[in-house]
Structures are given as C-alpha cells and as structure tokens.
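Summary for the funding panel

The consortium committed to producing paired sequence-structure records for every protein in the target list. Below we show the first two records in order, beginning with the earlier of the two.
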Amino acid sequence: MHEVTRIPNQIKTSFVFLNVLIALLVTSCSSTKKIIQKDISRLINYNAFENQFTGFLLVDPQKKDTLFNHNANKYFTPASNTKIFTLLTALKSLPEKIPSLKYITRNDTLFIAGTGDPSALHSYFKDSTSIAFLKNQGNIALYFENFQEEKYGPGWAWDDYQYYYQPERGSFPLYGNVVTLFNSPEKSITPDYFTDSIINLDYALNREAEKNIFYYPVQREDTLEIPFRTDTTLTRRLLEKLLDKKITHATTMPAGKKSILYSVATDSVLKRMMHESDNFLAEQLMILSSSMLSDTLNFAKARDHILENELNGLEQPPRWVDGSGLSRYNLFTPKSMVQVLSKLYAEVSRERLLHFFPVGGVNGTLEHWYGADTPYVYAKSGSLGNVYCLSGYLLTKSGKTLIFSFMNNHFMTPSSEIKQQMQAIFQGIRDGY
C-alpha cells in the first residue's frame, strides 16, 4: 500500500485563504468593470449624444479585456484620427532620418528626384540639407515624373485651396508649399519669389483659385500662410533662385542604383504631424513611405503595403483614401482604431509612443481639453464639420494604461458640448478603474 501524503492544516488554510482572495479580486474586478460600464452608459445616453452617431471602444491591453463597447464595429468619418494610421505607416516604412533626395550621376550631370520630403525650408523645420547639397553640385537635372498622384486627395473640399491646412501634395515640396506673410515688426514674404504676387487688398479670398495671386492688406499684422499652386516650372524656378544656377527638367531618370540624401529626424516630423494635426506633413509622410517601396510616389502604394502586411488582421478594414483625414470618403471603425493603437502600444516603447501624441491640458490640439494636475489623456483628435473623434491612451489613477477610440458623427450641437461630455466620461474612467 502506498502511504497517503497528508497536507498540514497550515498549508490547507493558506490554500483556502488564497482561493478566497482570488475570488474576491475577481469579484472586485468584475464589480469595477460593471460600475464603469454603467457610468459610461449613463453619460453616453445624455442629451448631447442623443441626435448623433456615436461609437466608443475601451480596452485594457494588459488583461486583453474589453471594458466598454458601443457601436465599435460601425464605420465613422474619422477626420484626423486617420493620422494614427499614417503614424503606423511611417514608423514601419521610414528610417531614422527623412529621405530627402534620390540621386545618381551620369557624365557631368547630377540627376535628382524628390521623395516627398516636407521639411525643406519648411517654416518649422527650416531644413536646408538638400539645398546645401545641391549648391555644391555642377549640372543638375530634376526628375518629376516619379510623382504619380493628384495634388489634392479624393473628396477634399474644393474651396479650401486658399487655407493653410490644405497645401498641395508633391514630390519636391519647398517652404511647405505655402507663402508665409506677416507685417510685424516689418513686412516679410517667404519665399520672396512671390513678392510681386501680393496684392494689398482686404479681400474675401486669400488667393485666386487658379493663379498665384495673393491678397494681404497692409493693416493686417498676424502671420498668414497661404498654399501656392505648384507645378514643375515653379519648383524648378524656386530652386534656381535658391542655388543661383540653371536646372534642367529631366524627362527620364538614368537606370542604376540611386543614392539617398537624408534630412531631419523622422520622429520630429511625426510628432509635429500628430501634435499640430498637420495635414501637409501627414500627406507627405505617406508619399515618403511609398518612396521606400519603389521609385514611384503614390499614396495607394504605401497604404496597400501596410494593409496587406502590417494590418492584414484588421477585423473591419477601412476605406482609407488620404493620409490626413481631410476627406469625408474615409471610413474607419473604433475597433480598427483600437487595433492599430494596440499594435503601436505593443511594438513601440512607451516613452517614445506617448511622445507622439498630444497631451490633454498640455499641448497640441488637446491643450485646452482633458486637463488635470497629472496628465491622463494622450490622444489624437479629429475634427470636421459635425465630426469629432478622439483615439489614444488613457492613464488611470491606479496605474493602468487603457486604449480607446471615441468617435462622434453627424451632431448638430456645438462640438464643445460633445467634448465636455467626453471629458466627464474620461475622468470617471481615470478615477474609477
């Protein structure tokens, strides 16, 4: 007979205590989750959300637990929440520094092609890497035919051509593809190539639709950025003025391995794009990403590569037509937003990742919302007429990091009312979970 091993009473007591403790913890977590769900449901059914379309998904990535789900699999116009997908694309596609030029030398001529680098002489980055490089070259031939894309994205508002947030896309942007004007402390025009194109007139338009004729009254003192119409001739002339030399227009690019010139740190462009919700940077980052796949610059090439390789597991694939979210053709679900945010959270270091996102009450587009003594909302907002979306990360007082996407479409009330209710919901989650 085998001797029966007896478990001491002290150990039995410990087992019982441990089982009771686990049961209490499970019950406590379940109770906390139910309270959170009840509070969110109460607030989300408030009048502010009554006559609109709302979707909200909140997950705990550590527990892989869905804390709240309301219309998370429905499609919404995301506005600038689209930039979260652009962020992932750039992080997966671009090196540490922005590729600025591709070039190859044949005989006595340097052939160059743009990659879509938005930083060249940009008012924020003020980068002159490509200009300094080209000043030291002899004969230069500039190739434009690698850009196989429209200047504007599908569904962009045709009458927004004159506003700073909708510059044209291109392979070789300079000055952010905008004219910068201000009168204080003295009159300034950048680039000064357009000095004779500025008309001192208080007019309803900032610029003529089809011409680079701009309106800026002398009594105005604030800084105004106006997109200019781009074309190959203008780009060549701007470069010729900068380099003080003639540049030829190449109709073909020589075969062979191209060298790459790099400019500013990629992370600096990504942060600026996310914090300021900069549409131009977002669009150019998608073009840049396509330049890493081939010599053809095309938004769809970068988008399709990411969807087919990095995001082939999305449960609700998006209708994704631009990099910025300017288009109302874009359609994304809260679930797909959370899936991408979860992928970023799993694959990018926490400090670096949160560095990209605007901080509630601190900076960027969230400077005046979701404030607290200790920041708790790190998220990307998205705004269009009758659209307000917010997706990102929420830090609770208990030390948890939650991932969320809160999307609002078709509301007729002021967006401030929507934000106030969202703020109340986020505060409750921060304090209660």
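The next record, for a separate protein in the list, is shown here:
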Amino acid sequence: MEATILDRATAAFLADGYAATTIEAIARASGVAKRTIYARWDGKPALFRAVLERLLTRWLATAGDWTVADTLETALLAAADQMLSVALTPEAVALHRLLVAESARFPELPAMIRQAGSTEGVARLAGLLDRAVVQGILPRQDTVFAAEQFMHLVLAGPQRRAVGLAPALTPAELRAWGVQAVALFLRGATR
C-alpha cells in the first residue's frame, strides 16, 4: 500500500506541482482514506520528502563505480553518461520544472531535495577528483567546487533543451555533449 501511495503521490506532484497537489487527491487516486496517508506521513511536506527520497535513491543506485575506470577521462565520461541518462528521464525533467516553478513560493523545496540526497552525486564526483589529486593527475583544488561545476557543465544545456527552451538533443548529440563537456572540464581542471 505504501508503494502505491508513493507512486500516486509522485505522479501527482510531478504532473500538478507542489502547490496544486493535495493529500485528498493522492488518497483518492490511491484508493485509501486520508487518515491512512496521515498515519504514515505527517502532512504534505513529509510525503513530498518521501517521494524525493525514493526518486533520489533510485537514481543514485544507477550510478556505477567511477573509481574502477582506467583513466580520469573514462571515469568522467561514465559519470556524464549516467548523469544525463537520469537527469533527462521524464520524472527528473518534471521535478526540475517543479523546482524552478515553485521554489520561490516554497523555499523549503530545495532544502528537501538536498536532505533527500541530491548532494550525494556531488560527493561522489568530489571523491573521484580527490583521488585524481592524490595521484597527481589534477593539481590541488577545491574538488567539491570542481564537481559542482562539472555537473553544471554536463547537465545545464541538455536540461534546458529537455524543458523546451531549445531543440532536444538526439542520443548521438547527447553522447557528443558528454564527450565535449569532459574534454572542456579536463582542460580547465588540469591547469
């Protein structure tokens, strides 16, 4: 039953947004009483956080072990491919739209995303970059900052295109985007 409620809540939040989604609508779609939802979650913010945690857990589970790659470039290419494959799913694009549209009215939403685990991707990349610094591949630098910049370099353009601000990229163009983003990042990070 909990999985069904979370499925219906995910669909409602991503389709209708945070403000327009109600516990009543989720209960009706799930075929349960509102009190069933309130018995498990303490209101809409807690249910939304549960939805976020579930999405992020699933997305983070798809990440490979970037440490086993032969080179830093290979590891970053694997990371870029994985990030793009997750960030451009319909659910991730809908969540991106929701955050852009509703964060001003609900400033707690970005904090919920961070608490649900969105910073884990930055931490994984920073760990990879830390190892490259220790191995002498990269000069000493703020690897958390570098990881965030790498993520922006890889994701910003394709996400903008996915929400309709420019033509969407084909799979071949996405692969080329990742390759070019990694090359540009490495040219800047190795200085």
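Regarding this second record: The chain has two domains: 1-61, 65-191. The CA atoms of residues 6 and 51 lie 6 Å apart.
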